[in-house]
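Troubleshooting log. The previous structure file for this entry was overwritten by mistake, so regenerating from the original sequence record. Sequence copied from the archived sheet and checked twice against the printout by T.R.
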Amino acid sequence: MSRSLMKLFGNRLALVGMTRGEDPIGQWTKKQISGVPYWFFPVSSKKLSARKPFVPARLEFYVALKRYRREILSLGSKSAFTQCPEALLAVSPWNWDSLCFWFPGVESPLKASRYRFARPLFRWFDSTVFRALEGVEVILAAADEAAINNLVLRSRGRLSRERIHQVPTCVDTTEFHPDSIADARAALGIPLHSRVFVNSGRIGRLKGWELLVDAFEDYLKTDPDALLYFAGDGEDRPPLEKRIAERNLQANIKITGFLKRPEIVSYLNAADAVVFGSFVEGWSVSMLEALACGKAIVSTGVSGIDSMVVPGENGFVVNSRDPAKFSEAMRNAVALPDAARVSTSIASNFDLTRMGERLARLWRPFRSYELPNESTARSQLLRFGVAER
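Regenerated output below.
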């Protein structure tokens, strides 16, 4: 999202977040995204790792924002945009002219936390976030109508449906687009003759990797040369590797580890179909990226799926967690004759520029939708920017 907003609105935005590099902590410094210079304020440093940190990143980010309040505000910014509930809690009392919050997914992040001690706190956390939202000018949600309505019910009167604007996530089709399967596989060393499935994103409990392994094992009964790639990494990599070894599937299932964006594009273009087994999602960015690369999708029934997959045309939605049914959908998906055209057509509805137009209509600081002068750093983007893949 940080990269996308910088492309859309340029250096009108300054970025506050975590760094994976050697940037000086607690200081404004100049950086570049896609050739656009912008102000960046790292509140802490976080090395890229699949391991669960001892201190939850959300808590660390919240405390760091509070610590550097004066330094952050020294830039003179008057408005703030964030997708992080912990950032909202930290900065909402800072007397902004305008504050915009975007739910990247409307489920409570603590309810499915990696930290067991945090899960019982989800109702308190929800209540605190809903209270902070009372002072937010614009609320956005990347979720379908049913999920947004559930959010409103969960707020117990603190949020009205009228205050929440549905704005799906987006995909940059200049980066994610169809390319030759043969070229992608040659670059990655993947056999051209094999049937290839890819799952992209974080390897975590809620992403449903167990279902994907079980379904793929069933798929191998009729196609023993098929391959499944987990294009990413995450805290559940050790149990995933254990399950693969227990099933003796090391020759057919591969885990890539963390990937850069061009590498993700290559794996998607190398696939015959892309598979998702998530229990819950917001509006899946990974799924949009696969669509933009012209791929058939097989997925469980997550938020936004009805807008991204047309069953029998560019994929299938499996509403149970039955490996046999998921495996059957995989077999049918690779045979769809027009999936590439349908998928890329759907992806065009979620192109980055369309999201920019929506945001410009909804939030005052984005209203003049144009690349700004470098000296006018008028808004502040608050985003926990450590990549999940």
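The radius of gyration is 21 Å. Archived copy saved in two places this time.
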